[in-house]
Batch of 4 targets.
Target 1
Amino acid sequence: MGGHGHGAPYTVPHYSQFKIDGIRELEEVQSELAKRGLKDPWIRNEAWRYHPGFGTKWLKARKLFFRGFPLGLGLTIATVAFNKLTGGDDHGHNGEHH
């Protein structure tokens, strides 16, 4: 069911492949916890978020805010051009300007 004979839709990576060594943000969290005598045994579960394949914080923000920008800009230009060509840009004001 749900695979059409292609196998599992995803593979769960082995937990041992995730290390916080070299990830500055997670190392800082670990050191702050250690100052208070605490330890987070599950911190390695956050390591995937810092993998280069997921991009930097700024790249993620750019994707979030500008994902549809090229399409939106193209549609805006097409709409304005269509209105100019068909003469439908007066919005029913009949030449009256306020």
Target 2
Amino acid sequence: MQRKSYTTQKAQRKMALNEMNKISELIFIPTPGIGHLASSLEFAKLLINTNNNLSITILCIKFPGFPFADSYIKTALASQPQIQLIDLPDVELPPQELLNSPEFFILTLMESLVPHVKATIQTILSDKVVGLVLDFFRVSMIDVGNELGIPSYIFLTSNVGFLSLMLSLQNRRIEDIFDDSDLDRQFSIHGFSIPVPFKALPDAAFNKDGGYVAYYKLAERFRDTKGIIVNTFSGLEQYSIDALSSHDEKIPPIYAVGPLLDLKGNPNPKLDQAQHDVILKWLDEQPNKSVVFLCFGSMGNSFVPSQIREIALGLKDSGVRFLWANNAGKQGLPEGFLEWMELEGKGMICVWAPQVEILGHKAIGGFVSHCGWNSILESLWFGVPILTWPIYAEQQLNAFRMVREWGVAVELRVDYRRGSDNVVAEEIEKGLKDLMDRDNIVHKKVQEIKEKARNAVVVGGSSFISVGKFVENVIGTN
């Protein structure tokens, strides 16, 4: 065997060391809106904090519907020098009539940004760039990556069940979706352990003005990527991951990397420090697990006055202690309700509340939620059971799974939608009592999932391993 010279060996060791020390760069292209940004930025920070050989560039879009997105990004990443931000140029918004389908409106807006994204990436392109991490609304950017020789990965801010639904649309007749002659019918969808009722499908699936088309166009590009990153964990959705992967060999690897949570909470100009302190002081004075927290997300607190009234009456009649994030203020509240609340000392209403901090408080025993995926993950992380009140997006599907598939929530509604009849006080009263019944099996199941969620992210946990596999995949493509 020919012996290599000392000089050759030295050169090879130097090359190997340089390769190990090489900084690989990922380009993140998230969608504005706190619900999408929060988990995307948490994933970026996780990658940076656990991999010294990675750097990240985030391409930011300013969107008039989300005025706090820019400040949120800068606050969340203030201590992350390995993450740089580049603002994309403003573009003309799509026609207002497309707002009949928010999903199609956003998809159209993202497609209009393609030339700007391409031009921006070309200015920073080097052999260090190893992948694009695209919010699932940004699938049109896959073509940019292909043209520039950069592999793309989808980042799904929802769950594998939602991914399963969107993929199932590729093999389903459109007439089946829009046929509302039998509202009690059910669908079999790979990724769900039980049939999915028609009423639990997201609004967009029924939206002929573009919502269905948006879902279809998004899902048909998922298979063109190198992987799908999902903010979930195997202890919750391993069945769904296995079912999808075994059903369709063309589906790229699914990386369950969650829960990705911003445990410091989202900055919000509506909440000043004085109000924050009042809320926490009031909670400190309540018995353990005695308070129900009501919060309907960044876009969900727009109930009509008649629904506000029913909520207030349901709270009063239930007798439970409550903290209600209600940006409608006093509008719609029954006469005398505020006086009763102050006299009894059982409740507090605030315009906005620090949700993560509240869910982690010892006084909280239940959560009335719109079932947005981030809120669900936060509730599971802290072991707080949910009373389901879905309103928009895929929240109906999330509520259905929480109640019927996983048994970790109490059902108020799983098919509530904007424009539907009010949820009446009697329903709310019963739901609150069921939620706060400590003998309800839901409380035990939520604690079990809490342990699985926390175990997933520690060293050696399922999500920790999944993140490592993703990094190996990315760097291996370089």
Target 3
Amino acid sequence: MNEEKKPYNRKGPQLSVNLSEVSVGTPRSVASSVVELKREIGLLSAVSLIVSVMIGSGIFISPSSVLEKSGSVGLCLVMWGLCGAISYLGALSFAELGTVVPSSGAEYAFFRAAFTDFHSFFGPLPSFVYIWVIVFLVRPAEVAILVLTFSEYTYSPIVLYFNMEISPFMESVLKKLIALLAVGLITYINFVSVKIYVKMQNMFSSLKILACLAVIIGGICHLAKGNIQNINKGFEGTRSNIKDLVLAFYTGLWSFDGWTSVTVVSEEIKSPNRNIPLSISLGVPLVTILYFTMNVAYMSVLSIEEMVAAPAVAMAFAERLFGPFAPIIPVAVILSTFSCAMSVQFGVSRLCFAAGRVGHMVECFSYIHIRRMTPAPAVILQGTLTSVFIITGSIIRLIEFVSFIIWIFYGLAMVALIVMRSTKKEASRPFKVPIIIPYFLVALSAFIAVVPLVLQPDPLFLAAILFIALGVVAYHFLIFQEKHFKCTRCFCYYVQILLEVIPSER
């Protein structure tokens, strides 16, 4: 199959658009400009994007999981440091890939560049399956989890303040309404303007870092008073059970997920050859240092037993140390979850955009708003999918068991890097990692992907695998055999009219 064909664009009615006649009232300066994604993300904003996606609610709520499974303070800290180092190596490898393949989409763009020409059927398959899983399942579900956490921490203070008595059913309804309103606001921001998103992201990232620093400074002050009895335990109680150690490692790596975020929006990064590697070299180590020192702070104030028993470690820490200022932590979680959800949606909408340009999604999802220069249909799609996940109920377990799929694709991205070292020898590589790093990460990703299947077999693993299989079937009929529904043509037509979008000129 020729990957460059655009079946959705060639079949069916399209708006015949001259940019000077886009719509009544369109400013002449807009009409005469090139309709494409603009490079509006500088170095600071790229670092903020990485920080915003990596720091969600996890570091405030669930560090107890790594400590419980590792068994000791010393090994727990080693786990956090090791997970940060591995994430950094992976991010550096993605930085090289992002300069060799300077297109939005991260893994999707890398798979297309590395594998498409190898085989007419199997070559384009990895990129399509990646889009299938990430766009329709993983990322919308992640945003839903983040927004539901936002809703929980927003709802509780309001109810306590007004001393309201609400039935469990109405409580569930109200929490979901708050979550849906948050999704609507996030979608509106990403629909309206990249500049607005960047400004809000920078502000929220700064506030999140301040909240992390508040925890760290509180822990340092506690240690300075001589309260070192918890930290002094070192490796006492370290577990030797391989299953527990692997799951601790797995949980830690999941907390660091998001280090690929800057390569998802490569086409919107200013001076990408410089800013992609540099933002990764600044952002990922920054998050690693914050995570490591926050865990030191937690463990300096709380005993192992207290940390393991706490449903939200940061809340227990704040109540013990901050007293009347303890509400700073719920506020931090609210800010953290909202900005993380906004950034995840921003990134995955660019995946839709990249896939739509080559026919791996309905093409209208690659269209750009004629004035706002945002991938408006893709943003609307993600907002809609996230809303469906919120309405249908809790999806936390599904995310936990689908998360192993992420590392399958990370490993495949490392294979793409190795392949392109041979097939694209002449490509410009302003940044290059030692070849041993991608080989190491391929082996590690295979290990991480297999471990949950062996150590925690669950029917939901089968559901995830079946979803991938369904993607292969969809690929066979819709992409390889180019069978398309007639209603798709009308759908694209009305999307263009209703959302004022047209195909990108790039």
Target 4
Amino acid sequence: MAAAESADVVEIFPKLNVDDEPELGTTEIESMCVNCFENGTTRLLLTQIPFYKEVIIMSFCCDNCGYQNNEIQPGGEMAPKGIRIQVKIDTPKDLNRRVVKSDYSSVRIEELDFEIPAKSQKGEVTTIEGIIDRVVRGLDQDQPVRRIQHPEAAEQIDKFTDTLKELKEMKKPFTITIKDISGNSFVENPRAPQSDPNTTVSHFVRDKEQNHMLGIFTQEEMNDKKPEKKPENEDGLLKMIPEGSWPLEELHGEVLQFQTKCPECKADCETNMKVTTIPHFKEVVIMATVCDNCGLRTNEVKPGGGIEEKGVKIEVSVRGRVDFSRDVLKSESCHLHIRELDCDVGGGALGGRFTTIEGLLTAIREQLVESIGMFMDSNDAETKERMDKFFGQLDDAIAGNKKLTVVLDDPTGNSYVQSLNDDGSPDEALRIFRYHRSHDQNEELGLNDMKTENYEEDAENVKEEKTG
């Protein structure tokens, strides 16, 4: 019975696929046109954009006056951190970079000291040139009336719109910065899978006000008093473990299970979790999810300890299939670089995982196929040729026919690669470097504001200020 019920589960956010487009199905809603106030049609499509997330695409069309509008909104979970993307535009080709921006994105043109505030525009899929055109249209919208009522202001706006239009002529480079507190924005890298020297991406921890803007509140903010403690026998997702009932030795040998939702089809499934120790490294928590409904299998690894005092950089020379069996623990913050292919995979792209060198190369290939598939149909011939060449080289490496140097750079120090020498002698193909993190790395990890000494005194002072 359970299997039959699972088979009837329909994906709420089906994958975006041109071949299956007729089967995706849109929801049509009759709604008022904001231009002529007659009835038009709004179409909603819930889908998944590869390498991005679940989204809700909305399109409005009015047959009476011809007015059209479209926007995009994220339909998945909120990203844990905000994102800041700064792109230097120095060639006409850069104007065609595809951009996914949410409602909470602010866009700033640095050279003009001009900023589009967050929540002033709806989320959309556009290009750099499209962002400029939308600003020009917005400024020109009320110009006829403004030229009559406020001619001086209208003249200044005309001059500014001319300056914006000159940006598209690429007489000189300019910089666009997108800051999104929801973390749901994206700018295309036209040089993928190589790193983009014109783009700087950083993540930041949202403050209290920004969380409230997104509708995120802590339990203390939601309730004036602490929530009542539920009885231990009450059915719930999380239950208190009586003290002493799970000694550490038993926890290492036990596989724990808890109910969750499949990230693909949203059906009920189970996640298995186990605490284990990697020899010569540390304790880790391995989590694996298997969905009986769609067959999805995922695994994720979390370090059992905290952030190490120093970051770690590991270089592995992959000489052939002998190195493919090396165990690899990659944390979520670990950056990957393949020197011979000039391929960079940022931290968080592959998630935390416990795999092998071969599994890591295969995962990189699958991830890049999904990421490029987001805009594959509109890529130019040069980009397709470059990607075909890259995938050919990567396939040769996976087949063991090409030597590579894989570099793992983890500022948290929680990544590991197995040595093939069990006798403790140095492994010539494995090089490990420890380094002190920079201020920017500590800022991204949230360590600069972390206080580990005398924090109890500070908490008491804050409490006294509130009560006083």
